[in-house]
Amino acid sequence: MNKDIVWHQHDINKAARAEQKGHKAFLLWFTGLSGSGKSTIAGALEQELFRRGVHTYLLDGDNVRHGLCKGLGFTTADRQENLRRVGEAAKLMVDAGLVVLAAFVSPYRADRDAIRALLPEGEFVEVFVDTPLAECEQRDPKGLYKKARAGEIKHFTGIDDPYEAPVQPEVHIHNHDRSVEEVVAEVLAKLQARELLS
Ligand SMILES: Nc1ncnc2c1ncn2[C@@H]1O[C@H](COP(=O)(O)OS(=O)(=O)O)[C@@H](OP(=O)(O)O)[C@H]1O
Ligand SMILES: Nc1ncnc2c1ncn2[C@@H]1O[C@H](COP(=O)(O)OP(=O)(O)O)[C@@H](O)[C@H]1O
């Protein structure tokens, strides 16, 4: 870091924004295999939060790779850079007073922990969307598992690339043989128990 660049503390801070918006700001980080249901659950949860008047923003892996993270692939280094950029963007949004929902495979513990470390204690909520690989592969909505099995896609998480499951996620969802509504209700209850939502 250049020592001539000094942090400027502005007058409107996070507490003031939370008071204006009427709720706390935090980052809900959804991690799990491709096809586990991250986008579906994050999207349904965002709808419910929005309905309650919560100011939200949903960052989705497939979408940010069209802009902020354009050109990055799926090597370990590219995933790390992808998640570093997303983590910094999410941090700004949380500072702006939003409840940010981020849905990324984010297969490496170190990358997820690096994002956790960017935020104040309690403002990073890791949500492990735990769906068996066989189920994800059966869902295969984009046909990517089929391509990965055929060797047409390399470094595919769960096939020829690792997925390091969270050890102590704040929320552990089993998203198999359950309705999306049931799962959303479970996440909301966990957030209320942590006093992140009223
Ligand atoms: N090799 C490989 N491994 C995993 N996923 C792949 C790969 N190639 C393409 N895709 C598609 O890209 C989506 C994952 O992007 P992410 O930005 O979430 O990945 S990561 O967090 O940087 O690991 C992922 O989206 P989801 O299915 O929504 O998880 C896939 O559709
Ligand atoms: N609880 C669930 N039960 C059955 N199918 C689900 C459930 N949650 C998500 N799905 C389906 O699984 C597929 C993958 O979901 P998606 O949200 O795209 O996963 P991801 O974002 O993790 O890749 C979609 O076809 C979605 O409709």
TrEMBL record:
Keywords: ATP-binding, Kinase, Nucleotide-binding, Phosphoprotein, Transferase. CDD domains: APSK (cd02027). ATP binds at G32, L33, S34, G35, S36, G37, K38, S39. Its EC number is 2.7.1.25. GO terms for molecular function: adenylylsulfate kinase activity; ATP binding. It catalyses: adenosine 5'-phosphosulfate + ATP = 3'-phosphoadenylyl sulfate + ADP + H(+). Pfam families: APS_kinase (PF01583). GO terms for biological process: hydrogen sulfide biosynthetic process; sulfate assimilation. Pathway: Sulfur metabolism; hydrogen sulfide biosynthesis; sulfite from sulfate: step 2/3. It comes from the Bacteria. InterPro entries: APS, APS_kinase_dom, P-loop_NTPase. Belongs to the APS kinase family. PANTHER family: ADENYLYL-SULFATE KINASE 1, CHLOROPLASTIC, BIFUNCTIONAL 3'-PHOSPHOADENOSINE 5'-PHOSPHOSULFATE SYNTHASE. HAMAP family: Adenylyl_sulf_kinase. Catalyzes the synthesis of activated sulfate. This is Adenylyl-sulfate kinase. It comes from Tolumonas auensis (strain DSM 9187 / NBRC 110442 / TA 4).
